[in-house]
Amino acid sequence: xxxxxxxxxxxxxxxxxxxxxxxxxxxxxxxxxxxxxxxxxxxxxxxxxxxxxxxxxxxxxxxxxxxxxxxxxxxxxxxxxxxxxxxxxxxxxxxxxxxxxxxxxxxxxxxxxxxxxxxxxxxxxxxxxxxxxxxxxxxxxxxxxxxxxxxxxxxxxxxxxxxxxxxxxxxxxxxxxxxxxxxxxxxxxxxxxxxxxxxxxxxxxxxxxxxxxxxxxxxxxxxxxxxxxxxxxxxxxxxxxxxxxxxxxxxxxxxxxxxxxxxxxxxxxxxxxxxxxxxxxxxxxxxxxxxxxxxxxxxxxxxxxxxxxxxxxxxxxxxxxxxxxxxxxxxxxxxxxxxxxxxxxxxxxxxxxxxxxxxxxxxxxxxxxxxxxxxxxxxxxxxxxxxxxxxxxxxxxxxxxxxxxxxxxxxxxxxxxxxx
Length: 420
Fold this sequence. Notes:
single chain; about 425 residues; 10 strands; ten-stranded mixed sheet; 2 domains; alpha/beta; Rossmann fold; globular
């Protein structure tokens, strides 16, 4: 077990890219004698190093401990916390407080390599060499496109999350031109001197998109095949689990629901998806854009005894702008841009999109929410999650706020006879 945070026992669990549990930090063995009855499990998102993830967990769980002291003192000695670590990746200029200049190909390779297996790292070497030279050769652009496609090896699991697949499947020139245009709209591609430079700029954005697509798919696999089974081993003695996830980490914890073992009953008591980077139709039944289909997670929502909440913010540029924009190549007809944005929209942009959802603004710590079990809630964070932290992501990572932690605690205490 790692050092406690704010007096709360803290464990770090780690999974590999296929969802295999590498280390549970003694969690399963320790729980029966720990006195923990309320277990908060938080998962970081795509642009997180171990250091960044630990800083997020230190803030969140420290604030959680303080709020338990203030609002739920009866939980002293009964609450524990878990930080999930998984092989995501850090695209350097997308991180908060990143430099304004684009990373060099070598810097990209160094940042991306730890998230990929040796076979994909070999592809990264080829990608780096081509991106560094940027030859004025159409065949070399196509070779780059093939190498980038080889980075996506995890299955997407949910059809509503497959928008970025078009970046891999469409013709090279169409993909790279479109992505260069999108980047230019964001102010990243000014003064490019010739068509090949434009295409190589688009090629770089294809690398970014494919990397994120792999991370999104990977998060689902790890949630289903790794975290879900682990939560099953943590069940028992009336212990309740409260899932929290940021960005692709929100997808990871959500996909733990179908991964829960059969026959044990669900230990999950609440879910908070913080700026989730996966389809806002994930739990929809039916999907508003296709009434003949349900979201992949719809059959599993009743594995959560309490409320399911999702934060969203218009200042989240990663999920609100790039996430659907990178899927626009799926357009096969005369759909309006607004229709395509909605079709491929993410949780962090507008929350759960389905019938029977209530909406509130994020509230200050201690201000009650009228929450019910097995009900969906959108939490508007426009006044809280708003700091512009990078040109690409906007406020996507601006989540270290008491209001966000309070949403988790309010969800966790829903229906209990507590002075909250």
